[in-house]
Amino acid sequence: MICSNSKESATLQPFFTLQLDIQSEKIRTVQEALEMLVARESVQGYTSKTKQEIEISRRVTLEELPPVLVLHLKRFVFEKTGGCQKLTKNIDYPVDLEISKDLLSSGVRSKVLKGQRTYRLFAVVYHHGNSATGGHYTTDVFHIGLNGWLRIDDQAVKVINQYQVLKQTAERTAYLLYYRRVDLL
Question: Which residue, of 43, 70, 104, 146, has the greatest Cβ tally within 10 A?
Fold first, then answer.
């Protein structure tokens, strides 16, 4: 949504993943990254038809909540001095994620029930290595038949507990988080 001089315009953009910027030192959790995603941001350099500079702000909100929500933690940042660098800091993420009404557009805020805003984690993809052009991927996935978690690393599959899914290390940091809406389970 873009706002200028009290006029609002909205551009709907479909998404497959929500890309979350985790670069700021202030961001330590998925919830904080989601709040940062929807924070109003001032946009510089806009002028009116009469060449007057005008104040414009931009804000991202969700118009619809998908059955599966994929959160992409943006771990790779480009630095002029060092090229592409990986952010290895831990970002805490919950098993049960409630999407705040603040993330929703004003038109749907009152229509979406709490159960439709609640998601349960069912998979985590990890990136191992420091390079954006290489590395290794592993996955933890919730297996409904076992009512528990599996860690998959190429052909190696082992049962793990939920604590291991949530515990990150310098070698294994979450890259993609897959959540399923609980009202659709």
Answer: 104
Q: Mean per-residue pLDDT for 25-29?
A: 94
The kind and range of the H/E element at 101 are none
State pLDDT tens for residues 30-66. Answer: 999 999 988 866 666 666 677 777 777 677 788 888 9
Q: What is the pLDDT of residue 9?
A: 59
Structure tokens at 16: 């497959």
Q: For the chain, how far is it from start to end, CA to CA, in angstroms? A: 32
* 3-state helix vs strand vs coil in the chain, percent to 5: 10, 45, 45
Strands (E) across the chain are located at 2-4, 7-9, 18-21, 41-43, 56-58, 68-74, 76-79, 83-86, 96-98, 118-128, 136-143, 148-153, 156-160, 173-181
| Amino acid symbol at 35 | E
CB distance 77 to 89 below 8 Å: no
pTM of the model: 0.83
